[in-house]
């Protein structure tokens, strides 16, 4: 159970089940494959495809305001709609929280435990597609205070008051794995020198729900990630790091956290930035 001052942004399955018929509430399921949505999604949920709705062909986030406005409009979401986001992959809902906050949406909630918890509790699912009539949506100017760009990330290397936080898997961090494919062209594998590694899934219980405030606090402070520091999380394409931004800022109350949404997808292509790749170890 979450125990902190900002827990109103996290809703449990019962809260959502009690409000599914609220006309001012829109449930958004975010997945990589539409087949998963078709088979068993929450009643009334609209589907956003990660690759076609949220990312550009080069895997950068699509931060074009016109594209965001169309996506929300086509989903029946107005500026006043309460949005509840979830997915089957850990952290998807919190990624959407960051993305919509970036464009000024006021009321976004994250479903604690996501699809996994909903199914485990035997709550109803459907294969019926949800469609809504388009409505008007107007995005606010992009909130630059929620993100950090590569120049500032570069300047933060070895600064004691700023922490680069790599939230990818250990093989990604060590340079043994690269997204879903080997590096291509100018891309390189590894991590930013000095980056602290804490995989984002360590913040979750086995049922997909967030760990307690005390557990989350211990996880980060044990690695020197404390509220007095400025923290720049990054991952592969900015989604897992957006999730970590949410955990640090909204569940732990860290005041200075910004998501490096360019993440490894951008850093690995930059020609003049340092990259560290751990040397493999072998047992004799």
UniProtKB/TrEMBL annotation:
It catalyses: thiosulfate + hydrogen cyanide = thiocyanate + sulfite + 2 H(+). The keyword Transferase applies. Gene3D superfamilies: Rhodanese-like domain. The keyword Repeat applies. It comes from Floridaenema flaviceps BLCC-F50. This is Sulfurtransferase. Keywords: Repeat, Transferase. InterPro entries: Rhodanese-like_dom, Rhodanese-like_dom_sf, Thiosulfate_sulfurtransferase, Thiosulphate_STrfase_CS. Residues 21-127, 158-276 form the Rhodanese domain. GO terms for molecular function: transferase activity. PANTHER family: THIOSULFATE SULFURTRANSFERASE. It comes from the Bacteria.
């Amino acid at each position: 159970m979450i125990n902190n001052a900002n827990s109103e942004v996290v809703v449990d399955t019962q809260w959502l089940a009690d409000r599914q018929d609220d006309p001012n509430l829109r449930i958004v399921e975010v997945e990589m494959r539409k087949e998963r949505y078709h088979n068993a999604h929450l009643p009334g949920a609209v589907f956003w495809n990660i690759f076609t709705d949220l990312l550009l062909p080069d895997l950068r986030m699509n931060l074009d305001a016109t594209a965001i406005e169309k996506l929300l409009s086509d989903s029946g979401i107005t500026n006043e709609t309460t949005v509840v986001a979830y997915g089957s992959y850990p952290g998807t809902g919190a990624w959407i929280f960051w993305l919509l906050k970036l464009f000024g949406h006021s009321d976004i909630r994250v479903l604690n435990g996501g699809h996994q918890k909903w199914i485990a509790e035997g709550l109803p699912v459907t294969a019926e597609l949800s469609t809504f009539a388009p409505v008007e949506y107007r995005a606010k100017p992009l909130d630059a205070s929620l993100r950090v760009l590569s120049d500032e990330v570069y300047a933060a290397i070895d600064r004691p008051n700023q922490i680069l936080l790599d939230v990818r898997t250990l093989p990604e961090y060590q340079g043994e794995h690269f997204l879903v494919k080997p590096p291509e062209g100018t891309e390189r594998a590894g991590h930013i020198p000095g980056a602290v590694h804490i995989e984002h899934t360590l913040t979750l219980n086995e049922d997909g729900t967030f760990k307690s405030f005390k557990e989350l606090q211990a996880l980060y402070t044990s690695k020197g990630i404390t509220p007095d520091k400025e923290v720049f999380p990054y991952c592969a394409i900015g989604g897992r790091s957006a999730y970590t931004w949410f955990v640090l800022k909204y569940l732990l109350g860290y005041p200075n956290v910004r998501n490096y949404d360019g993440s490894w997808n951008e850093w690995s292509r930059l020609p003049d930035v340092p990259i560290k790749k751990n040397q493999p170890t072998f047992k004799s």
